[in-house]
Amino acid sequence: MADVESSKVEMPDFVDPGGYGEVSGQMAMPGAVGKTEAEEYNTLDEPVRETIMRDLRAVGTKFYHVLYPKEKKALLKEWDLWGPLILCTFIAMMVQGTQEVDKQDGGPEFAQVFVIVWLGAAVVTMNTKLLGGTISFFQSVCVLGYCLLPSCLSLILCRLILIAHQNRILFLLRFIVTCIGFAWATFAAMVFLGDSQPSSRKSLAVYPIFLFYFIISWLIISHSNV
Amino acid sequence: MDLQFQDFGDTRTQPAGAGGAMGGKHEQTILFSEFPDTAEDDQEHDKLMGEGEAKDPRSLKAGPSFWTFEFYQQFFDVESKQVGDRILWSMVPKPGVSYLQTYIRPNPDLYGPFWICLTLTFATGITGNLASYLAASTEETYVWRYEFRKVTLAASSIFAYAWLVPLAVWGVLALRGSRAKITLLELLSIYGYSLAIFVPVSVLWIVPQPWFKWCLAIVAPVLSGSVLVRTVWPSLSHDSKQVAIGIAVVILLLHATLALGFMLYFFSPPEAKSKNDILPVNPDTNKASTPSPNVPEAPPKAPEVEGDTEAKKKPQEAKGDPTAAALVNPGVKMVERESKEIKTSSSVKKALDVKSPVKVQEGVKTKTVPSKPPPPPPAPPAAPTAVTTVGKTEEMVKKSTS
């Protein structure tokens, strides 16, 4: 059409609709993309102390929840294996037999304790899953590892008791302390892991946990050389 | 357009090969011999039978693969009550009831065998340590030496028995052409549960009475072995009597060997693993540790006291020697027995370090001193008193031997 061709149409510039010039900036969107980039940027940039403190605080919170097992989700929601590693290393160091030949202590080696704790946790977890449990592998290992805390505390107490000259009463005291640690650990683990099994199989899933903490407690009570 | 029916005649209606002698043209029997499969029929079938059932034949054929987790889940398909029943009835042979049929058959499991083996490993390790602790010392300063390596040995032997012997039995049954068809899984289950009786038995083995230990070592394998043999017997019944009895005897023997092995290795008296290096140091000083009242009545009282400690410490060792020697010369034999008893408690060594100067004086009279067996409990408190009584002892000895 002749009239269309002749008129000059002013097309607005889509890049600059209102004539404001270059517009750029960050929008706080609910979507994930912008936020994680900002966060990653921050965690890479933050001082090392903050990173360590954040992890330590997470571990500390979980320790608190193990000692007072009321809320179940705390350990399961964000599992980590720092706590189990610290506890396992501590127990293994304390419980291992001496290397001196004349003492002939029959205690376990450091590596044996490590193997017992980690393989034991793995086997108990596999058992729970094979019976039809609804918990993930690492969540269960995390819970079992963190629940070593009461046993660890009883080990420290036993070690303090061992400083004194030993007699029957002190042995009985050590025995009671270890029993309390064992019962506390088993109870805490049951609180966290108990719901993942149907009720007809609950005792089948609880027994391996009981056995696991029983063996650790036996290692603790048997350690009697100073 | 006209529609006309074609008359096909008789040729179309004669079935192939069949004597279809028809009558006239008007009688036509049409026999259908081919039924083409239509898709609609299959769908209707599925809807009629329900989706689950239509899927079942397919799933039974395929089965979960060996490499998936679900394959292993089928071995753990048990309830708590079932496991409890299986454990209980593996220990007690119920007459008239086949353990296999009643308790294992629908779903044999591996939960029981695995956890019973593991429990037994640690039960024998722990109770073995407890037994040696209780038997070897009643004094307060005893340092509990425990042997962790026994646990690893126990683990290997128990797991080997519980998993290799059923394999062997299954192999033998398969070779002999058994018709009863016990599967390997069922054999593993039965053997695993038959070990359950040894857990409470190992706890009872702590009691240091040897006759009690031997009673347990005989009764336990007989009970669980009888359940084993009764379960396996139907698969052997088609064989010749001799072979069947032979296999049953072998099964029982292996079971009894396991029980005996436990008892002798874990629950044997501590003198069996005595430390020889302590012997040269202590025999003289140990005599000094005995309390003074026993000194004048050493010969008549010593056998009684020794008999007491013997029962506590060495239930099975050299019973003949002490009684004979006590009549002849209490001194000589008592020294030997004492020295053996000394080996077990190293804390006695500590307690007796006080008396090292005494050792020199009594060294000459090692063989002839009528000694008293060291009662361990009063050893530490007796230490100071013992030193004073040593002098009296020596005087008495010199008078009696000169």
From TrEMBL, chain A:
Query: Where does the Yip1 domain lie?
Result: 75-219
Q: Any idea where this protein resides?
A: Golgi apparatus membrane; Membrane
Task: Please tell me where this protein is predominantly located.
Answer: Golgi
The organism is Scylla paramamosain
Q: Belongs to which family?
A: Belongs to the YIP1 family.
Print the keywords alphabetically: Membrane, Transmembrane, Transmembrane helix
Annotated GO biological process: endoplasmic reticulum to Golgi vesicle-mediated transport
Task: Give a yes or no for keyword ATP-binding in this entry.
Answer: no
Protein name as it appears in the record: Protein YIPF
Q: Look up the record and report any one GO term of the cellular component aspect.
A: Golgi membrane
Membrane topology qualifier: Multi-pass membrane protein
What sections of the protein cross the membrane? Answer: 110-131, 143-163, 169-192, 204-221
UniProtKB/TrEMBL annotation, chain B:
Chief subcellular site?
membrane
Keyword Cell inner membrane included in the entry's annotation? no
Composition-biased stretches, type Basic and acidic residues, lie in 309-320, 334-343, 392-402
Q: Which InterPro entries match?
A: Yip1_dom, Yip5/YIPF1/YIPF2
Its keywords, alphabetically, are: Membrane, Transmembrane, Transmembrane helix
Q: Where in the cell is it found?
A: Membrane
Gene Ontology biological process terms from the UniProt entry: vesicle-mediated transport
Q: Which GO terms describe its molecular function?
A: small GTPase binding
Domain Yip1 residue range list = 90-260
UniProt record similarity statement: Belongs to the YIP1 family.
What is this protein's record name?
Answer: Yip1 domain-containing protein
